[in-house]
Amino acid sequence: MTDIKKTNYRWVVVTLLFFATTINYLDRQVIGLLKPTLEKQFAWTEEDYSHIVMAFQAAYALGLLAFGGFIDKLGTKLGYAVSLIVWSVAAMLHAVVKTTLGFASVRAALGLGESGNFPAAIKVVAEWFPKKERALATGIFNSGANIGAVLAPVMVPWILGIYGWQMAFIITGALGFVWLIFWWIFYEIPNKHKKINAAEYEHVHSDSDEPSDEPRQKVKWTRLFGIRQTWVFVVGKFLTDPIWYFFLFWLPSYFSSTFNLDLSKPSLPLALVYTATTVGSIGGGYLSSWLIKSGMPVFRARKTTMLIFALCVVPIFAARYATNIWQAVGLISLAAAAHQAWSANIFTTTSDMFPKKAVSSVVGIGGMAGSIGGIIFPSFIGWVLETYKDAGNITAGYNIIFTVCACAYLFAWLIMHLLAPRMKVVKL
């Protein structure tokens, strides 16, 4: 190792990823907060809304598969920029549509563009961080999802009250173009970047057996389907991503219908839930990184951390017994924080198991599986809530959904463990 004091530019890179992810989730969260307003404006039923959510998820699933390979081929700098431009334009177009079909169409375009965020971001982390720091770096940028979800309940009602629902979509969508300026100025891969010195470059590659910086070498994604480790990630995402989408798209409606929360005003309960997820995301990444630095093997550290947080989701089934909003907020906050801790680690397993040239493709395949689950689950949610709403007891419908949430992570962890007890590194 060189005696030169190393630079720390990799943390600037994580900051860029954090803000991109914040904007990504801010844009997708807007419609959930405007749901009561839009339901009145366009006479939506619960099933109409679930179909709009499903349009987003279907496009997100297809986009993940396409963007994963696209980013592996094109590189992170240009690939990320293309993704952001598509989703920002789509977010702003929500302001001009007038029909349910129109909303479904622009939601699909939003899903297509937003699907590039995580394949690009995980690949950037693999390019810029050694394995012992990747979970923490992932946890930091992934916490942007939570900050976006915290900002939305504050920003959107304020914009709605002053300017109307159309401007809520336009203002939040335009933020992406501000980020794009900083991305293009400050980002490049390590071996091309002028702000990184030799000491940091050596640190970035200190625990890697791969040749340095080969982002444009492509692996056919069809080949990846025959690898067991791909299915570990696929199963984990398929069973747990839908739970997070439920937290994003239905929690505002849950608090409104069950506890009469006024969504036309800034929402403290929602802000607290999503603030807790920030702690979970960074804490989950820190825990596995700490276990690795303490001497635990990488894969055991990831699995141990994921099991701990899978257990933390289980208490959400008790939300059915909550007699006031703050009891529900506490239980849901714990579960949502645990999801983000789980997410920080499951994403990092891809860069642990696969070479950098395949990371975006694997993330895309797994993300597609999570979105397919996100298509199926909203259909189930819509049917359950509409059924119990007609019966005059929509809270009972939410109780069923919370029970499903409580079991999903332990079930996912068990199947992942059975598929790959030792999670060996893939040689391509």
UniProtKB/TrEMBL annotation:
Chief location bin: membrane
Subcellular location: Membrane
One Pfam family here: MFS_1
Segments forming domain Major facilitator superfamily (MFS) profile: 13-424
Domain of life: Bacteria
Keywords: Membrane, Transmembrane, Transmembrane helix
Example of a GO MF term: hexuronate transmembrane transporter activity
GO CC aspect terms: membrane
Residues passing through the membrane, by range: 52-71, 78-97, 163-186, 230-251, 271-292, 304-322, 359-385, 397-420
Matching InterPro entries: MFS, MFS_dom, MFS_Na/Anion_cotransporter, MFS_trans_sf, Sugar_P_transporter
Topology class, membrane: Multi-pass membrane protein
PANTHER family associated with the record: HEXURONATE TRANSPORTER, SOLUTE CARRIER FAMILY 17
Name under which the protein is recorded: MFS transporter
Organism: Mucilaginibacter segetis
Taxonomic classification: Bacteria, Pseudomonadati, Bacteroidota, Sphingobacteriia, Sphingobacteriales
